[in-house]
Design goal:
The protein is 20% helix and 38% strand. The chain has 223 residues and is α+β, with helices and mostly antiparallel strands. The protein has one domain. The protein has an 8-stranded antiparallel barrel with strand order 1-2-3-4-5-6-7-8.
Length: 223
């Protein structure tokens, strides 16, 4: 059986190089730009977020129940993985003039792991208070029992309790969470959906209102 080997001429090799070079340069430029832009984005995610939630508890005494979450996202890496904890509470809240008084119905700190995916958007002017103009990024939040895993026999599935879909509105610095599933029947109840706003100083309205109305001026998750 005869095998024919075609030897490329110098002109053919030169033509291939001239075609391949701009493609390689474009791919390298895209990769380097993506690395820089994603790093800038992931550095913005860490911080404290807060928002009210629809109450899961029911009032038996006619008092209004307020629900809220204060979330602390920490240690987002250059691939979009992060961890942290959130304080979810509900309370009977009374207002006496400027004084806020109340009793906790539920209160607990929950640990989580998560992942946000990065997407490159066209550079243009975007109104920060119009959600449809925001750059939107999606991800997943996993609520876990603990972070001090049994390292020698580690399976993350062993520690999962619940899972949420995440939508991040970048210009608004706002996170929307939608409940996906729970992993064990004894998992505590969580809101089906909730929206959290990033803290911008102690006087930022969403953070301050949640802290004072639900947590009575004190919470453990933002320390």
């Amino acid at each position: 059986m005869l095998i024919y080997i075609q030897i490329l001429t110098i002109e053919q090799i030169s033509g291939i190089i001239s075609i391949a070079t701009p493609i390689i340069l474009f791919l390298w430029f895209y990769y380097s730009q993506r690395q820089t832009l994603s790093k800038n984005y992931f550095e913005q995610i860490d911080g404290i977020y807060a928002g009210f939630t629809e109450p899961l508890s029911y009032s038996s005494n006619g008092k209004r129940i307020y629900g809220g979450i204060i979330m602390n996202i920490r240690d987002t890496d250059d691939k979009g993985y992060f961890k942290g904890d959130f304080d979810f509470a509900e309370s009977y809240t009374d207002f006496d003039g400027n004084r806020i008084m109340g009793t906790k119905v539920r209160d607990g700190i929950h640990t989580f792991l998560g992942k946000i995916d990065f997407t490159i958007y066209r550079d243009k002017s975007r109104h920060p208070f119009r959600p449809d103009e925001n750059r939107i990024y999606k991800g997943t939040l996993y609520i876990v029992d603990r972070l001090d895993f049994a390292f020698d026999n580690y399976k993350i599935e062993t520690y999962l309790t619940a899972e949420y879909d995440i939508i991040h509105y970048r210009e608004m610095q706002t996170l929307k969470f939608t409940f996906r599933k729970k992993y064990r029947p004894e998992t505590p109840e969580f809101p089906q959906t909730f929206i959290l706003y990033k803290k911008m100083g102690a006087s930022f309205e969403p953070y301050r209102n949640v802290r004072e109305t639900v947590f009575f001026g004190d919470t453990r998750s933002d320390k």
